[in-house]
Design a protein that fits this description.
Helix content is 80%, strand content 0%. With 166 residues, it is an all-alpha fold. The chain has one domain.
Length: 166
């Protein structure tokens, strides 16, 4: 007979995501989706893995957000694309320098996330300025990382302490 068991990592993930939503609700700014993604990725089975994922996530977000903001600035002030298919081709080709930069600074584990953030910034940006949008994505991600690390730390050590006291 199979027993349905909810593990500690699942509990930590759900709690971290809810706290991200709560912070967004109180902030009345940002997009909770980005904080929630960071929280989901950064809640790991132990603190060492959480810190490693958090570091990679933050570096990837900085790279992708900066590259995305730079592209949007150039697009809005210099180029401007009348044809969406051409814009998509340029965005796809610009993944090459994003990937190359990540590899060049020895952040291979962050490469795919840098590409995701770059595309998120360049495709999902609203009417706000490119820099503002990129900074908000970085803030949202950082909130998710801090929440994930805090929840992971607190619940991991709380459970560990409760097991010792038995």
């Amino acid at each position: 007979m199979n027993h349905f068991h909810i593990g500690l990592r699942t509990v930590k993930t759900c709690l971290a995501v809810f706290i991200c939503f709560l912070i967004d609700y109180l902030r009345e700014a940002g997009v909770p989706f980005y904080a929630a993604i960071a929280a989901i990725l950064c809640v790991q089975k132990d603190m060492d893995k959480s810190f490693k994922v958090a570091k990679n996530r933050e570096i990837a977000t900085v790279i992708g957000a900066f590259a995305g903001a730079l592209f949007l600035f150039i697009e809005q002030n210099i180029l401007g694309f009348d044809e969406m298919l051409l814009r998509y081709l340029v965005l796809s080709l610009l993944l090459i320098p994003v990937i190359h930069f990540s590899v060049m600074i020895h952040q291979e584990n962050s490469t795919f996330l840098s590409c995701v953030v770059f595309l998120s910034v360049t495709i999902n940006h609203m009417d706000e300025s490119p820099l503002s949008f990129a900074i908000n994505r970085l803030v949202d991600t950082t909130i998710g990382i801090i929440v994930a690390l805090s929840v992971n730390y607190l619940l991991f050590y709380l459970v560990r302490h409760l097991k010792k006291s038995r």
